[in-house]
Amino acid sequence: MSVKRPSKADFLIAAEDHSYHLSDSQMECFLNLADETLGSYDAIDKLYAQTIAQQPPEREFSKAPDADNLHGAWYVKTHITGAAQGPLAGKTVVIKDNVSVAGVPMANGSLSLDGYVPSEDATVVKRLLAAGATVVGKSVCEDLCFSGASFTAASGPVKNPWDLSRNAGGSSSGSAVLVALEEVDMAIGGDQGGSIRMPSAWSGIVGHKPTYGLVPYTGAFPIERTIDHVGPMANSVRDVAVMLDVIAGADGLDSRQKNPPAVACVATLDQGVAGLRIGVLREGFAIPSVSEDQVDAQVKAAVAQLQSLGATVGEASAPWHSGVALDMWNVIATDGAAYQMLQGNGYGMNVDGYYDPDIMSYFGAKRREHADALSSSVRAVALTGHYSLKNLHGAYYAKARMLVPELTRQYDEAFKDFDVLVMPTMPFVATPLTAADAPIEEYVHSALNMLTNTAPFDLTGHPATSIPTGLADGLPVAMMIVAPRFQDALALRVAQAYEQARGPFPKPPRR
Fold it and tell me: Which residue ranges form the domains of the chain, and what is each CATH number?
């Protein structure tokens, strides 16, 4: 199909945006040149259709009845069986609904993608199926995944498994809840500011954000290329480790990956913590106007248990962790998401690797059609990011990215004295759900006020595991274990030692 040619009105809009002043004759010349250039677009469209495009496979799926979806965590159910044998044989997996499962609808928590059906499985889905897993559905995630709470999805709030009136954490909200309720064995989540670890913490399960670039993001809907992560969630450290061994490794398609080393997390999982040095990150505790004493106390008690197992414990410091790091993340996530996810229709441009032109086209049209239905957190980013890019010209994004190496250096300096760093995953327990019609300031603040300890490690790329430590006021508290880059196995090894010392974690009440 031929690409529609621009009109004079189209080029007047473009000229105004670029501050060009064109005479009628100049305008005619540029329109003629555009017609010639767009002929190449027509040729590429035809060639792509002949050589790459494919139709979605026939896979059955269904919406979960309300009676079976009390917590609002299921987007659709399906049943896709994997290989007959493998490390995940017999395991059921739910996929966060920003990750493509071919032939199964994908909404990314938003009306702006609702109805889209991918034609190809994401790399992590292919690897899970090859390892024997059964994919049983898609889990609800937050609107375009831009929320650390669980009330922004177009389908409605995802409710905490411990208290239906509270947040489950986001944006991998449905994944965490379905694992916590044991409706599935394990889940895939995504993490740009803490979105694997935060719902894991508030729902009482184990979640691991891998080292940046360890697990291919191919086939997952991006937010910002420099902070996009995808990773495993489950009820036990062992299941998370097995899952990470399956999904890790380069796929040759994801530009985020720079020859990541092989990992073998299960192989070292039971080596214990005797002789390891654990750094209690000073700036991750007692954060003014953020931290709750009961949460800090529980995590320090968990550290004491690790010490009793033979670990050496001391205080570590990264001065930029609790203040500057979040400012850096705010700039990068705001400008970056506005530029790539919104103006760039998910994928942006200017890097090699995998693109999904179908989803870019679908989302580009639908996000304008349903613009007013986007969550206030997404619209806040869109408006502020547009202003920044147009008036500040991306310079502040550049400044923030140039500061990331110093933040990284501070953590790496701490790793010279300690093998891992620990702190609360979430500085406070799960908050009450915010109403959809709440004042905009309240809505946005309550969607993003819990990122203090998690977001910095999306910037630096260090691996981080969240593991529940106990309950406070009947709600889960979690410890986060951070390791040097590509030492994911070490973070999980420490988590495994703690899990065994802690004993079985209680289950949410049955309803």
Answer: 8-51 (1.10.20), 61-502 (3.90.1300.10)
